Amino acid sequence: MRIISGEYKGRKITAPKKLPVRPTTDMAKEALFNIINNQYYFDSITVLDLFSGTGNISYEFASRGTQQITCVDQDYGCIKFINETAKSFNMPLQTIKSDVFKFLEKTTQKATIIFADPPYDFSLELFAKIPELVFNNDLLEAQGTLIVEHSKHTDLSSLKNYSYSKSYGGNMFSFFEIEENTTLEEE
């Protein structure tokens, strides 16, 4: 995998083969960051990277100037690899070794962007639990976005707070946003 843009553009990162991961492809990552780039200033957002695996997405945010990035993964090898990589690049990543669902149940940490890349073989019920916990626990900042990566064979459009999806090859990103509860009063 490589960092696509920013301070560390072009740097290659090689994760140990033994890690239980499926990094986001460069093509899908580039498309995702083009969308994010049109909505946010990277140096003024906070990011929560769930099921962070190799840290691929977090490195991209850090390379583009994001200073507050938290990576959550339950695998010790993944957390160790992220810590080592972040240290070698001097990136401001914080890591938390935890089951993502338990973390979401207990945390009060808000983020502008919450990115989740769970295993593609999750059931729809497990996928649904991610936005449910994020929105029920008020973890998104105002104007924030939850992005869930999944297989093109999984449809998350029926979930609460779903906004839209984008497909890139076999990868799909579903975007979830806080629903505006504004009603116009007629006079």
From TrEMBL:
Keyword terms, alphabetized: Methyltransferase, Transferase
UniProt cross-references to PROSITE patterns, sorted A to Z: N6_MTASE
Keyword DNA-binding found: no
InterPro entries: DNA_methylase_N6_adenine_CS, RNA_MeTrfase_RsmD, SAM-dependent_MTases_sf
Phosphoprotein is among the record's keywords: no
Name this polypeptide is given: 16S rRNA (Guanine(966)-N(2))-methyltransferase RsmD
Gene name tied to this protein: rsmD
